[in-house]
């Protein structure tokens, strides 16, 4: 029987324990794979420019920048990796937007390990994968709500990111640092998202995000 072809996996997560756990699991499940982990978007881009990776596991919430931004930037490479988003977020709009930006698959961090392995195999084959429980939740929600939308679906990708950052109690200055934006730009995004959603102030933003799986 022919051995599986070698390939490279890049892990991008700002938590050292998660990186170590993923690395150990993936090396055991895919002995033919070279697994490299990085803790920031900047490190990930340096690594991805040096080596070609078939798969990149990208945490959506990273310390230096958003994983959604990294997903977009990785796709500009001459030979971009196929991206699997890995996140605790289970909100439908968040998942769909991440995949619209270029992620091929989406796995929640509380999914069993075999789902991550399945996602990697599917993605390598050029197919998409969404965690089974998440896919079922979306189907059930679609049946219940029909075509009715939620107010955060009106937001741009950047406004959605700012909304979620504010829901964590961060100041405009902190949000600006995390998203590599100026405080003035963040203030404009906050004004626009409040206008679009009708939310007024941090307390309402926090309650809304908690009730809709965004925080």
TrEMBL record:
It holds the Pfam family Response_reg. Residues 8-124 form the Response regulatory domain. CDD domains: LuxR_C_like, REC_NarL-like. SMART domains: HTH_LUXR, REC. Keywords: DNA-binding, Phosphoprotein. Gene3D superfamilies: 3.40.50.2300. InterPro entries: CheY-like_superfamily (IPR011006), NreC/VraR/RcsB-like_REC (IPR058245), Sig_transdc_resp-reg_C-effctor (IPR016032), Sig_transdc_resp-reg_receiver (IPR001789), Tscrpt_reg_LuxR_C (IPR000792), WalR-like (IPR039420). The modification 4-aspartylphosphate is found at residue 59. Residues 148-213 form the HTH luxR-type domain. This is Response regulator. It comes from Prosthecobacter fluviatilis. The lineage of its organism: Bacteria, Pseudomonadati, Verrucomicrobiota, Verrucomicrobiia, Verrucomicrobiales.
């Amino acid at each position: 029987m022919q051995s599986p072809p070698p390939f490279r996996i890049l892990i991008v997560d700002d938590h050292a324990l998660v990186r170590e756990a993923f690395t150990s699991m993936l090396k055991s499940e895919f002995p033919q794979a070279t697994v490299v982990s990085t803790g920031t978007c900047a490190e990930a881009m340096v690594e991805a420019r040096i080596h070609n990776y078939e798969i990149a596991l990208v945490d959506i919430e990273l310390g230096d920048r958003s994983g959604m931004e990294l997903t977009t930037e990785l796709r500009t490479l001459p030979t971009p990796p196929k991206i699997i988003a890995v996140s605790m977020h289970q909100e439908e709009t968040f998942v769909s937007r991440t995949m619209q930006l270029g992620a091929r698959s989406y796995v929640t961090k509380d999914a069993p390990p075999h789902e991550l392995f399945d996602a990697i195999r599917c993605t390598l084959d050029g197919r998409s994968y969404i965690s089974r429980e998440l896919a079922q939740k979306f189907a059930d929600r679609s049946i219940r709500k029909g075509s009715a939308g939620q107010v955060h679906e009106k937001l741009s990708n950047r406004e959605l990111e700012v909304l979620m950052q504010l829901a964590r109690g961060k100041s405009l200055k902190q949000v600006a640092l995390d998203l590599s934006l100026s405080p003035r730009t963040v203030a404009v995004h906050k004004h626009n998202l409040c206008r679009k959603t009708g939310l007024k102030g941090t307390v309402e933003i926090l309650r809304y995000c908690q009730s809709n799986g965004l925080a």
